[in-house]
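#struct-pred
JK: can someone run the complex with magnesium ion? inputs below
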Amino acid sequence: MKETFIKQIEDENDENLKIFAKMIEEGKTVIFPTETVYGLGANALDEEAASKIYKAKGRPSDNPLIVHIAEISQLKELVLEITDDMKKVMEKFWPGPLTIIFKKSEIVPLKTTGGLDTVAIRMPSHKIANKLLKLCKLPIAAPSANISGRPSPTKAKHVVDEMKNRVDAIIVSKDSDVGLESTVLDMTSEIATILRPGGVTKEDLLTVLPNVEIDKAIIQKDSNLIPKSPGMKYTHYSPKSQVILVCGEEERMIQKINELILENDDKKIAVLCKSKNKEKYKTNYILDMGDTIQEAAHLLFQKLIESESYGIDIIYAETFDEKGLGLAVMNRLKKSAGYVTIQA
Ligand code: TXA
Ligand code: MG
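RT: done, structure tokens with the ligand placed:
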């Protein structure tokens, strides 16, 4: 077991950030906040450092990592080609919750890209993440800072509970803003394709690109469709309790969930729902998702993790419209439920 160095960082001017930057330079693993979720970082150009990330997470080695940069000038040495469309997308959405897939250059180790000849790159807008990247002057590979298969952490407390003694250091800071991981956009294919929906939506991307596709494996669960993003094929975002989605017209959905609560009166049941519905459920355990889709994105992972401290057996989850950011929220919810859905 490792002794993890844990320190609260107030803002990007905190002198202690230099300690963490030095650790990255030394090939160590450092968890840091980003605007999407907390990331488990290490030097992206150092094979051995990248291996430590897989080990800390228990992550399958064919699931590639996202490389984080602070400045566009860092991009040139990491990729083979930067097209005009890529430039337009980067200008509009970087820094921010968008990851772009490029053809990788020689200097990016295959360990970082899970053996692929492409590399996923993102420029985070979070000020502490940005400063850490600038101080160490290295690209940092960072998946979400959870054990593989678990919900991604958006709160420092959840990170420390789960990852303490698995990494060299943890930067403790505020909650992540967006709450869901970045949109992953493959720009090596003829038509730009969303491999993982996130904070930047298809509608947003269509403001600068003529055409955007969504990987079909995201929308439907069909064993014949293999997701183009390796990470999307694994079980994901699963809290200790079983999650079951209930869909249908709102009044019927509420009634159905209440019937299910009654049928399972020997179990501890929580309901993941919009604020406006929370009084309507016959349970003491309400996981309140707020009333806007932005709030739902921000709160989803934190509520799933929080439910574990109440020892919940089953979480019945309301469903959301799959448009805009709703596509990303429903993608994570479906995966956390292992696609188990009841039609009301
Ligand atoms: O918001 C985020 O993206 C967070 C923060 C920390 O930046 N990171 C994150 O990383 O979510 P991770 O490893 O949990 O998810 C990376 C996803 C996986 O689904 C992976 O398969 C996909 O991106 N990915 C990475 N490189 C890829 C590549 N070259 N081709 C296709 N998919 C790739
Ligand atoms: Mg992840």
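RT: quick notes.
The pocket of threonylcarbamoyladenylate (ligand 1) is lined by residues 34, 36-37, 39, 63-66, 99, 101, 113, 116, 118-120, 122, 142-144, 181-182, 184, 195-196, 229-232 (CB under 6 Å).
The chain is about 30% helix and 20% strand.
JK: thanks, will look after standup
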